[in-house]
Amino acid sequence: MRRRLVIVFLIPLLGVLVLLGGGYAWSSAQSVQQTFFAENAGDLSYFVTSARQALSTGNSLVLESEVVRYEELYGARITVVDRTGIPWELNGRESRLDEETLAQVSLALSGRRGETPQAVLPWSAEEMTLVEPVFTDGDVIGAVVLTQSMAAPRGEIVRHWGWLAVIAVLGTGAGVLVVLRLARWVLRPVQRVDEAMAAIEHGDMDARIDDATGPPELQRMIVVFNNMAAEIERVLARQQEFTLNASHELRNPLNALLMRVEMLATGLPESWDEDIEATREEGRRLVRILDTLLSLSKSGHGDPTVRAVDVSELVAKRGEAWREVAARSGVRILVHGESGIVCATDAFVVESALDAILDNAVKFSPTGGLVELAAERTDESVCIVVRDHGPGVPAAELESMTDRFWRSSGTQNVPGSGLGLAIATDLLASIDGGLEIEEASGGGLRVILRVHREAEL
């Protein structure tokens, strides 16, 4: 986020610097060149006056001495052309003009004054040439040509541009620092909110944001976040306290119940041994559930105990455990499918989720109905399929069945809280599993419990 914010602020700043710097650079280059042209045009006018006298008298001695001194001082070349277009030999030097200069000389001899050169980029021309006609009594008697190197103005322009580049770099650096400080000032509260949220996610419910710096809108967000975190901590503390108290309160009567079962078992014939053992197993399972609730209440979250589990055997045991409960409602439970299906998962989580699904299947099956229970293996996971032959639900409501407290419009009179499928979904999610519900052919529903951790055996 900081990178994007810096880019958003920095691009307009660089654009303004480029526009202003480019405009100033071009303006300064024009100014230097125009000053250079004006100075040389003034020198040329001086030589036009001297050349008029020399051309009128045919004597170039005075003109030659002035030309020599000027060329030594300024490094320019002065050429005088008579009315025939032939350059004079000044100080024994034979002058030769290029075609472009000769074209300017022809215009000057026709009576047209030379135009001031237009400003160009400093590297576009090596030399500047100015040509002025020489008049006497209204007649053109010759022309004066001044040729000057562009090295001096080019160096001046480069110096200007160099200083401009230094200023631009310093300005860009200052802008970057300002943008970074601004981005840090804006994003620091967001970063602290992110850190506090990460801490709360990892179980540190005391995480708060103390320093409310930054823009006023973000300061308000921090206050709201702290209040929200405090409320969440309070609610979770109450839930944890309730779970802890409920677990403790249930443990004592459960232990007493198990002791009474043991006492009753001593006076029952051997034909009751199987029922007594099933009762003991259910009691031990309730103890495991209470232990899990205690662990959740103390740590705030439970970590799944992953080990190799025979899912086929687990399905068979839970089907047998629910068979008598289902029989009271006139419902039969049929367990089939593959055997020996083993995967790495948490047996307690799978059992609890399967019990929630079986409870729904038995509850909503009609008298004389059948609930089919099977363990299956696919290419990606191990599945437990619960198929009932009840009334089912409309296709439009299938996606809502795992929502908390959801009840179908056709089963509002059936006792229940609407939490079974939601709890099963959360339990399976804790072991990277999932719950799928689909319509079954012939009526009823197919509920698929997927476990995604398959063991390599």
UniProtKB/TrEMBL annotation:
Residue stretches making up the Histidine kinase domain: 245-455
Superkingdom: Bacteria
Transmembrane stretches, start-end: 161-183
Subcellular location: Cell membrane
Pfam families in alphabetical order: HAMP, HATPase_c, HisKA
Stretches assigned to the HAMP domain: 184-237
Family matches, as Gene3D superfamilies: 1.10.287.130, 6.10.340.10, Histidine kinase-like ATPase, C-terminal domain (3.30.565.10)
CC per GO annotation: plasma membrane
Chief place of localization: membrane
InterPro entries per the UniProt record, alphabetical: HAMP_dom, HATPase_C_sf, HATPase_dom, His_kinase_dom, HisK_dim/P_dom, HisK_dim/P_sf, Sig_transdc_His_kin-like_C, TCS_sensor_his_kinase
GO molecular function, one term: phosphorelay sensor kinase activity
Catalytic activity: ATP + protein L-histidine = ADP + protein N-phospho-L-histidine
EC number(s) given by UniProt: 2.7.13.3
UniProt keyword annotations, A-Z: Kinase, Membrane, Phosphoprotein, Transferase, Transmembrane, Transmembrane helix, Two-component regulatory system
Stored PANTHER family: SENSOR HISTIDINE KINASE TRCS, SENSOR HISTIDINE KINASE YKOH
Protein name: histidine kinase
Organism the protein comes from: Leucobacter luti
